[in-house]
Amino acid sequence: MSSGRSKTSILDKPLSKGKGEISLALYALLFSEIIQYCQNRSHSVNELQNKLSEIGQDVGTRLLDLYFVRERNSKREIKLLNMLLFVKSTLWKVLFGKEADKLEHANDDERTYYIIEKDALVNKFISVPKDKGSLNCATFNAGIIEAVLTKSGFPAKVTAHWHKGTTYMVKFDDSVIARDKSLDDR
PANTHER family given for it (predicted)? Predict the structure, then answer.
């Protein structure tokens, strides 16, 4: 006997409706486990941050695929600024329930952009020991951003820095800037 309701697959649920499905305490616990996992396999702060970035890249790749499977009406961006706005707004809302605070373009380098987040969730519940004073766990988020941009056809290197809270420095390949300029010329 079957009920009149059809079963909805988890892949059919839109990501944007997912806010609040996971508790902040659970997120903090899972993220602290990721940090401990990376810390146990690292000998320096730099190595720890690189491992966090690598895990973030895995998450970013899967998240991008999942987003486009669920949001069938979405289109992939081909313009650089539109892609950065997608990361700042849509991606951040999916991940953290709010937009990133700012998006800025570097004055001295056309390849460099900054995404600024005053209070990164990944740093909120982390107590950094004195011997790891420069540790910025937002390198995890930087890995997510890098994967999303690179897998979307905007190869870039993304790093996290302590500045105005946390600043993600996005440095695009020259090919991205050249392609964007050729699209502007059309």
Answer: 41-2 PROTEIN ANTIGEN-RELATED, TRAFFICKING PROTEIN PARTICLE COMPLEX SUBUNIT 5
Q: Are 145 and 87 in contact (CB under 8 A)?
A: yes
Q: Which residue has the tokens 């990133």?
A: 100
Structure confidence by residue, pLDDT tens digits, 42-96? 999 999 999 999 999 999 999 988 887 777 677 778 899 999 999 999 889 888 8
132: Cα separation from own chain's centroid:
23
3-state secondary structure of 128: coil
Burial 37-63 (b: 16+ CB within 10 A, else e): ebbeebeebeebbebbbebbbebbbeb
pTM for the full predicted model: 0.82
Q: How far apart are CA 118 and CA 100, in angstroms?
A: 8
Rounded Cα distance between 166 and 92, Å, is: 14
Half-sphere exposure of 118 (CA within 13 A, CB side): 4
* Gap between the Cα atoms of 140 and 142, Å rounded: 5
User: pLDDT tens for residues 120-131?
Assistant: 888 877 776 676
